[in-house]
Every structure is written in structure tokens, then in C-alpha cells.
Design goal:
- By secondary structure, this protein is α/β, with parallel strands linked by helices.
- The chain contains 9 helices and 8 strands.
- The strands form 2 sheets. It has a 6-stranded mixed β-sheet, sandwiched between helices.
- Strand 7, helix 9 and strand 8 form a beta-alpha-beta unit.
- Helix 4 packs across helix 5 and helix 8 packs parallel to helix 9.
- It is globular and about 50 Å long.
- 36% of the residues are buried.
């Protein structure tokens, strides 16, 4: 199955891939297995909301230990099920937009652009896509006039160990040090940024990515993760 999905990736565009996979693997709710939907309304309400705010500009909204969140990310990252990206992006928007609006109203966080945490070139070649970009598309689709995605802003130009393998925060920071850079500083100069990721643990990835954005001239960076 995995080789067949990779073959589909090689010959088809993303919308056609999503359609093909829906035919091969009909949609079932990730929570209760109900047909024709990736997540039913009942299971949406059952997801564990567990807001995590390590600082005033970083928010994560769900627990990664919730099986719906964990299973959805697994399908998205490792099985090529792009529809889960849109679904998770909409979930994130529903939880996070109040925080964005509050920053706009009280902190001058006007006209933000959406930037995603990148994956390494090696992982991008292997997987064929950045799953966080698919989450961002779902997020932006809920409010297109207020959510401008600017693609290919951050690049991970140095291969690092998987963060999940490293338990100590200072070691995670050292692992990522100088691994991100902004491809075109003009895209972020003077701009407010909504920085999106799927999961944050110690915040090391957000911290290093924010450093790169600020170095390139970004104004304020609001960091939003689906889960922690």
C-alpha cells in the first residue's frame, strides 16, 4: 500500500491524489468510523481541548494524546491522506481565531501572513509534501480574506536529529540552532506572522524559527500549534 501511494504521488497532482485516495480508502470518521466523513460532529465535540500557553505569543490547543488528533496526524503525515490536513486546519482555526483577533485588537497585530514550519529537504523528498502546509490551507480556507498564506518562506537547510528523540530542552535548542533561514527576507520584512506547526513540545522549533523570522525583519510572530 505504501509503495502504491508513493506511485500515485509521482504521477498525479495533489487534488487528484486526494480524490484517488478517497476512492481507494473511503472516508470514515477517525473517531467512530462513521462513513462519508473524516470527523463527525459528535467526535469533534469529544476531542480533548487542552490549551497550552507557555508564553503570551505561543498557543497549542489540543492534547497530542487524544486519539483523534494523534490518528489524524498519522494518516496525514505517513499515509498521504491530504484530507486530514484540511480537517485539522479547520479545527485549529475554530480554536485559535479568537487569540488572533485579540492580538489584532490589543497588540497591533494587523494584516498577518501565515508561514509554516518547514520540513527538511530529505524528508520533503521522501514524503513529497509538507503536512503543515496542508493544515495551513485548511486554516486559511475558513477565512480567506484574513488569512494570506505565503509559501516557501522558511527553509530548513541543515539536517538535524528528530526532535522527538531528544528529551532535554537545551539539547533540542542546540539540535536546531541555525537550521532555519528565510529564503526571501522581503516577504517578511515589517510583517506580522502567524507561524503554524502541528505539534509543539518544548517550543524549541518555534523558538528557532521565530529567531530566523525576526532576523529577516519580521515584526511580531504569533505561534500556533494544533497540539502539544
Amino acid at each position: 500500500t505504501y509503495l502504491y501511494i508513493n506511485y500515485i504521488h509521482s504521477i498525479m497532482t495533489l487534488p487528484l491524489i486526494a480524490t484517488a485516495l478517497d476512492i481507494l480508502f473511503p472516508r470514515k470518521c477517525v473517531g467512530c468510523k462513521k462513513d462519508q466523513t473524516l470527523l463527525c460532529d459528535t467526535c469533534t465535540k469529544r476531542i480533548r481541548r487542552e490549551l497550552h500557553t507557555p508564553d503570551n505569543w505561543t498557543y497549542a490547543y489540543f492534547s497530542y494524546h487524544d486519539h483523534i488528533i494523534k490518528d489524524s496526524l498519522w494518516h496525514l503525515k505517513y499515509k498521504g491522506r491530504y484530507g486530514y490536513g484540511k480537517m485539522l486546519g479547520k479545527l485549529l482555526y475554530d480554536e485559535a481565531w479568537e487569540s488572533v483577533s485579540e492580538k489584532k485588537q490589543f497588540h497591533g497585530f494587523h494584516s498577518p501572513i501565515i508561514v509554516t514550519i518547514p520540513v527538511s529537504k530529505k524528508r520533503l523528498r521522501h514524503r513529497g509534501y509538507n503536512h503543515v502546509s496542508l493544515i495551513a490551507q485548511g486554516f486559511a480556507s475558513e477565512n480567506p480574506s484574513e488569512c494570506e498564506i505565503v509559501n516557501n518562506v522558511l527553509e530548513k537547510y541543515r539536517e538535524t536529529r528528530r526532535q522527538a528523540e531528544i528529551k532535554v530542552r537545551k539539547d533540542r535548542l542546540a539540535n536546531l540552532k541555525n537550521s532555519f533561514h528565510v529564503t526571501d527576507p522581503a516577504k517578511v520584512l515589517g510583517r506580522n506572522i502567524i507561524l503554524l506547526d502541528d505539534v509543539t513540545t518544548t517550543g524549541a522549533t518555534f523558538e528557532e524559527a521565530t529567531r530566523a523570522l525576526k532576523k529577516a525583519g519580521a515584526r511580531k510572530v504569533l505561534r500556533l500549534a494544533l497540539a502539544h
